[in-house]
Amino acid sequence: xxxxxxxxxxxxxxxxxxxxxxxxxxxxxxxxxxxxxxxxxxxxxxxxxxxxxxxxxxxxxxxxxxxxxxxxxxxxxxxxxxxxxxxxxxxxxxxxxxxxxxxxxxxxxxxxxxxxxxxxxxxxxxxxxxxxxxxxxxxxxxxxxxxxxxxxxxxxxxxxxxxxxxxxxxxxxxxxxxxxxxxxxxxxxxxxxxxxxxxxxxxxxxxxxxxxxxxxxxxxxxxxxxxxxxxxxxxxxxxxxxxxxxxxxxxxxxxxxxxxxxxxxxxxxxxxxxxxxxxxxxxxxxxxxxxxxxxxxxxxxxxxxxxxxxxxxxxxxxxxxxxxxxxxxxxxxxxxxxxxxxxxxxxxxxxxxxxxxxxxxxxxxxxxxxxxxxxxxxxxxxxxxxxxxxxxxxxxxxxxxxxxxxxxxxxxxxxxxxxxxxxxxxxxxxxxxxxxxxxxxxxxxxxxxxxxxxxxxxxxxxxxxxxxxxxxxxxxxxxxxxxxxxxxxxxxxxxxxxxxxxxxxxxxxxxxxxxxxxxxxxxxxxxxxxxxxxxxxxxxxxxxxxxxxxxxxxxxxxxxxxxxxxxxxxxxxxxxxxxxxxxxxxxxxxxxxxxxxxxxxxxxxxxxxxxxxxxxxxxxxxxxxxxxxxxxxxxxxxxxxxxxxxxxxxxxxxxxxxxxxxxxxxxxxxxxxxxxxxxxxxxxxxxxxxxxxxxxxxxxxxxxxxxxxxxxxxxxxxxxxxxxxxxxxxxxxxxxxxxxxxxxxxxxxxxxxxxxxxxxxxxxxxxxx
Length: 769
Fold this sequence. Notes:
Distance between the termini: 104 Å
Mean pLDDT: 91
Strand order of the largest sheet: 2-1-3-5-4
Number of strands: 5
Oligomer: single chain
Shape: globular
């Protein structure tokens, strides 16, 4: 007979055994989940690193199976994507099925309370505000009518009307006394941060020019940052922006980034207008949408002109304008992210964005493209501020931000539908008040849109670059195939850049960030049902993948506009890192101190590793992947910088012998940009049409301080006799190439006195003898 107590004891033991087995099974499943997830997230960046960093023959490893699908075989993706695409999809599905759905990192509403003053403006103030709004409403049509009659575009008067409209909207709901009180409280911090930015810019300019006073600016910068840190006068994002400026400006004058092909038109246009137009003339053209190349807005060049007017009409003053706007966009992105996300994710996202190798390399080109990144950040910040604060001016400012997008680099236009998507998700027009807010945004946009009504060419020149271009490469394949393949290229561009151009190589973000991105993407998708921000960010991501990555007329997405996806890539990577840290810490109720310390330490280590990888990709891997690519202009600047380094006191003459169809005008512009050589008189050219040197040039050519360069593609029947005659003038031949065993870019003939300027076997890295 079994005693009842023994039965209860056996049942308890069996229950404990079942509980233990369940815990073991749960632990095993968790280990399996982690092992599978880590493996699936590492596979994509690992394969790309093996191919593009270590040059292993993995590209065609699955070619036989890949080409069984003709669409895949015709794509530019390597065959190992037969592993990457399933790994990406399985990881997302596994994460969605197994990960916890709720997160404190995402919120459904703005994270900051409404700060509108409790006391309403007086009736007189509101009357003045309505008067300003009415005045702007009359000025804008009058400006348009005047433009239609006179044939000129609306200018500064329209900008003043827009400013009056914005100020009137603000004045209608806000009290100036409250604003002045805020300004008085924040003035010390604003002044301190402004001084720090000024010293940083002067330090960067001095370092770029190699000035002896750079050490003084360095000391002032260190002192300014120390004071800001010690007294906490600046938020963390301020220091992120300063660090980003240092990273993005590093090597801004290096010969490797000197010429990409067509960017010098932006410099020439800006310098010409800066030196030959009055301020009134330039301001009257601010809404001209047909400036550089007849397709870039004048306001875009106006920003470059302002930078050169303040910092100098040289390489730094020209290129720094885009770099500074890219760094300044971090303030906007952080403010927007902080409205809806935790401090940790918001800060991580801008750290990753500010240290992106894409911006370090592409940002050094003298294009105006990165203005679109600033426009995107400004527009998102304006949207978040409008939603958080709610007054009329905030929505009118959002509309003005949309209007500004039409006068920057054209890719900024892609951000305009994103603003309406934001309003549709967060503030749909379902009642009268919402409709009024939408109307204010539309009014702010309409005021700045007026000049474009008188420029039909503005829209016509936008067709090239889109799938509507009849000469585009998409005519080689059906439009649905073009859109599908390029959407796929854009989706996986975070791990594999389909086209390595404009100094951007391998992938658009570093391998560690690429490994974390799928987790951040899946984690965001998990929050879609409970967080409107997650819904907007996910819809915006797929919209931008299509708009930026697929609606073009090229074989693959263009690097010149794909930077618009970087905020999404970086935020997803940041969310992935935050999720990883949360998993390591465990639930708050059971979080141990050692686990929290482990999570914090691992996060810091990964951040440092990501920054290091981006630096390596920007300044080492980019060079490795572009060996043999630099043109004559690039290598000529390398020669000049080498001369400046070895003999800064030398005054050599560079004498070009060319045919009629090739000149050195581009090299003369490059001289103005880099101030090398020291004088335009050091660049000389003579045109030949017969196999003999002009008699009037013999004296200069015979000088030992003259270096002779022959047009590389000169006809052989002219080149061979000319080379013989030059050699008789006691000149020795030096073939200039990018690196050993690469193509000869040009041939330099020089006296033995200057032979040390000639690289041994084309390798400039070898020591000088």
